[in-house]
Amino acid sequence: MVARFTVFVYGVVCRLILFATFLYSIGFIGDLAVPKSIDLGQRASLLLAMLVDGALLALFAFQQSAIVRQWFKRFWMDVIPEPAQRSTYLLFSSLFLLVLFWQWRPIDDIVWDLENSVVRIGLYAVYGLGWLAVVASKLLKRGCLIRCPLYLGWLMVFWATPTMTAGHLLFAIATTSYILVAIEFDERNGMAESYAVSFRRNQAWANRRSWRTT
Known about the structure:
- The protein has 2 domains: 1-108; 109-201, no CATH class.
- It contains 7 helices and 2 strands; from the N terminus they run ααααβααβα.
- It has helices spanning 2-30, 46-66, 70-79, 82-103, 117-139, 144-159, 166-213; strands at residues 110-113, 163-165.
- Helix 2 (46-66) packs parallel to helix 7 (166-213), helix 5 (117-139) runs antiparallel to helix 6 and helix 6 (144-159) packs antiparallel against helix 7 (166-213).
């Protein structure tokens, strides 16, 4: 009973951290109402900023990619009790993001800066719609029709900004590249799963035929 309650409390804490990280992500990427954002924070030389930001993005991508590998899943199942595995994954993802927010070095060079107020409001609206698409996709069950709005929502979040700095552009290119790789990975998994289902159906049909003939 105590163990179940501990796991429950642990899960609640992990999800609260995730929710706080999610809210900060909105401000960080959109450069909205947070003390440190993608364009606001500790400055560094161009080379150092690119090295630090590139390393942070690579570290986060590695963490997200490693969790789907079989060797990691086997390690994860051996080390983390099954009831706490999902919560621990959410906690690690949140911590990696928080480290990225903390150590990110802005690069101030302007790529574009759209001054028209209607255009700026429109881009912020697209940015907000992107987050709504991400949330809606996460709340619904996974599937091909759900992953497409999820990826589209992330692309809207990464690119819909009236002021694009070099640092924001680096972030958008890196995260978009990761999404394109994820789409390819999901397609391969979907095809493999489809082939597996077809094989099991054909095998069951052959077994029924064999049973009837005998």
